[in-house]
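Input structure tokens:
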């Protein structure tokens, strides 16, 4: 079958197995090229199939030779439909890892549910005994609460007033003004329920109750801050409240892990094109300007460069983990550099449909977006029939 991208709004309905596999291989090669990290040995990654979570799994496996269990929620291929990209990514990762002699197993289902936590716990018990690193990298629009069964939906809204700013449709390049109505209390509570820290704490409680966290275990969840430009819709909006809650949860988890000398961190990461971020208004315009500036400065990074740096230069240096005044790890340091932000703010003022192709990296945005689905990946011949991938090797 020849597979082509089929767009609907901010999502692509198709994914290319060979492109996804090539992306995984490229990430593996990058981590290997950076050399060994004296890092984790047994790792659970929740949200392991795409974005920062996939990069976390690859860095653990190929930087430190770690055994990994990946949890994700992805679609297998079905009659007339390709799988979701994270499914192909995971199939490729498992195949590569096993060929390299690395333990890898995957669990596909709702990480918010009791059932998937139980399945994961049983797998750790049977195969690994304990884990020494738990990465929490979920990005989801909904969460069915395991106790109440209420389905919470997150929103991306400002708080306190209507937010009006520029945005771009990155498919057409059209820059327009967008107004987003403010959230009500229910929107805030729902977003915190989905993207806040409660489920992270539930995972850690469940693992600890079964004595599955090794002495000195670390857990890390990912957050974002970003510039003044996006503050009203991101950090001071509904999603920002959820991130505040996630960051507060790190301290609560650290307290609970004192007896095993464990620690919970939030790492603040760079804005990047992922399935999650492309759905947020205003952010794609910011990212296309940011990419332009960071590429010109030679400091652009993708998810794998970010996470390799997180492990090698922050978490596993042999010295105390450097954190900011709020106790957070910062790998958004290059994005937030004053000179970078000053340039982006200048470009932001000048950004129109006409100017953006020259002043922004719209082409880089689009190509990164397509690449998430396995398209426009350099080493792949798209004229050839795509390989059929029908199973994930280590699926539990
Ligand atoms: P992503 O969309 O690439 O990855 C999300 C992962 O969560 C996938 O593995 C998916 O299968 C999994 N998932 C979603 N719902 C699930 C469920 N119910 N059960 C099991 N697995 C589920 O997202 P991305 O961007 O890597 O986000 C991960 C974290 O990083 C989020 O907390 C996000 O806020 C944060 N972050 C993202 C930034 C960005 O610019 N993309 C910047 C800084 C932080
Ligand atoms: Na992820």
């Amino acid at each position: 079958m020849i597979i082509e991208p089929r767009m609907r709004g901010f999502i692509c309905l198709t994914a290319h197995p060979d492109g996804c596999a090539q992306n995984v291989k490229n990430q593996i090669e990058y981590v290997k090229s950076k050399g060994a990290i004296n890092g984790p040995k047994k790792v659970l990654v929740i949200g392991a199939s795409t974005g920062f979570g996939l990069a976390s799994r690859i860095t653990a496996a190929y930087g430190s030779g770690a055994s990994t269990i990946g949890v994700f929620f992805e679609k297998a291929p079905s009659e007339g439909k390709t799988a979701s990209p994270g499914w192909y990514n995971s199939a490729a990762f498992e195949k590569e890892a096993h060929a390299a002699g690395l333990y890898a197993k995957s669990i596909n289902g709702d990480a918010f549910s009791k059932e998937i936590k139980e399945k994961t716990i049983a797998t750790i018990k049977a195969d690994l005994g304990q884990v020494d690193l738990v990465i929490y990298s979920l990005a989801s629009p909904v969460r069915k609460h395991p106790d109440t069964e209420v389905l919470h939906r997150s929103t991306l809204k400002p708080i306190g007033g209507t937010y009006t700013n520029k945005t771009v449709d990155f498919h057409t390049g059209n820059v327009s003004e967008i107004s987003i109505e403010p959230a009500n209390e229910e929107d805030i509570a729902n977003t915190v329920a989905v993207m806040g820290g409660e489920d992270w704490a539930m995972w850690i409680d469940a693992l600890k109750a079964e004595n599955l966290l090794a002495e000195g275990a670390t857990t890390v969840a990912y957050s974002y801050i970003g510039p003044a430009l996006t503050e009203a819709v991101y950090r001071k909006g509904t999603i920002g409240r959820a991130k505040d809650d996630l960051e507060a949860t790190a301290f609560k988890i650290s307290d609970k892990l004192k007896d095993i000398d464990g620690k919970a961190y939030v790492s603040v990461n760079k804005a990047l094109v992922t399935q999650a971020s492309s759905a947020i208004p205003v952010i794609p315009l910011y990212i296309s300007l940011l990419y332009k500036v960071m590429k010109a400065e030679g400091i652009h990074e993708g998810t794998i460069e970010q996470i390799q740096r997180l492990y090698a230069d922050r978490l596993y240096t042999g010295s105390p983990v450097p954190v900011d005044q709020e106790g957070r790890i910062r790998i958004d340091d290059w994005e937030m550099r004053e000179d970078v932000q000053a340039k982006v703010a200048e470009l932001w003022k000048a950004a129109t449909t006409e100017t953006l192709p020259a002043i922004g990296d719209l082409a880089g945005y689009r190509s990164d977006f397509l690449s998430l689905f396995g398209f426009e990946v350099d080493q792949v011949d798209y004229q050839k029939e795509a390989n059929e991938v029908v199973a994930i090797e280590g699926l539990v």
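The chain has a mean pLDDT of 96. The radius of gyration is 20 Å.
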